[in-house]
Design a protein that fits this description.
This protein is an alpha+beta fold and about 425 residues long. It folds into two domains: about 1-165, Creatine Amidinohydrolase, Chain A, domain 1, CATH 3.40.350.10; about 170-425, Creatinase/methionine aminopeptidase superfamily (Creatine Amidinohydrolase, Alpha-Beta Complex). Helices cover about 35% and strands about 20% of the residues. It contains 13 helices and 19 strands. The strands form six sheets. A six-stranded mixed β-sheet has the order 6-5-4-1-7-8, with helices on both faces. Strands 9-12-13 form a three-stranded antiparallel β-sheet. Helix 10 (about 275-295) packs antiparallel against helix 11. The longest helix has 24 residues, at about 170-195. The protein starts with a helix and ends with a helix.
Length: about 425
Amino acid sequence: MRDEIRSRIKALSKKANHDALIIIDGASHKLRNHDVTYTFYQSSDFMYLSGWLQPNARLLIYVGDDVQSTLFCEPSNAEIERWEGVRLSPDEILAKGHADKVLTTDEYDAHLKKLLTKAKHIYFPFSAFDQYNDLISNYLNEIAGKRVSRITPTINDLNTLVGPLRLIKSNQEIERMRHAAEISAKAHMMLMQEAKPGLKEYQLAADFEYYCKYHGCPHLAYDSIVASGKNACILHYTSTLDTLKEGDLILVDAGGEYQGYASDISRTFPVSGRFSEAQKSLYNVVLDAQSQVIKAIKPGVTIPYLQSVAKKYLFEGLKALGMIQNFKESHISHYYFHGVSHWLGLDVHDACPYLGEDEKPLVLEPGMTLTVEPGLYFGDHLDTVHSDFHHLGIRIEDDIVVTEDGADVLSKDCPKQTHEIEEIMSV
């Protein structure tokens, strides 16, 4: 991790102004009720810049003639450690290469004030603007007479620096994502084999989580969507309380997380083990659209272009089924009402920009990672639909890394041809 963190800090410093102070706090425990907390997840940007996974930590990076990162971690506390485990000392943390310097959080205020006396530019996450701005304003007022410059430092959004850096994944990051996708693909295959009428959606959700955790993904990347029948027409369906019924399709959108990196895979398959002719015809429309989008991925194209490819082939497929005669954006949006791709990485919807400084869509570059997930949904929002297609919801999603000449499908191990799915379900 040491070289990887150092490389990220170096890249960050090149984007920042000279005499810049970068301020970012790690996440803290969130209270669920009374004295019980939710499972702790580190802030993604904080993890990206430090690799430190413990709560209540803070990070300061000063970009001057030299660049120095200082990580602040909670001090030793015998009583708390009896309940929560041993806290490493600053020297032990320093040896792991999380920062150039490690201090305790008790030393944070004094160190921050010292750096503020010379900083000409300040960067912090605008997602928590008031929290950071109030702290900095109070300290700047307190040390006003000690500042090297009388000019008030500029205030800048840290995400404008970190977001673009996170767009391009290193080889190590890509391998973590590949591993997450491989485990998740096998979990999807297990659900295909286990699905049968009478099971509850939450039972399949539990099996998916069990498989991922047992095989090395300690967390899921997001709450699993296990949507049978008409529930598949609800994009972010998460109640998972319904019973699987004979003749229905089930849409599973779920992914494990490995060493902080997310996978995001969707598969749709028949509860009974075999697609009906109507289900198969609609499924293949979505599959063809997804295949064409993946073929279109290469450096230089944009996500809006990929969306246009998805709509073109979804339209052609629906036209062949006699559902649409003339291509109009409003017609397609009745059946397909989300984007075809989003960035993927430390977050399932990675916090990276979609537009460049010129406000135009970013073009794809090697090392970018994204999903491809077209779908068709024939829910109650449609007044007139042939009965064979009523309440069908189909989405097929894979994880992609852009290469020099195309796309590498990280989740390729997860079957998606109808005959492959039926064969797995027959075992």
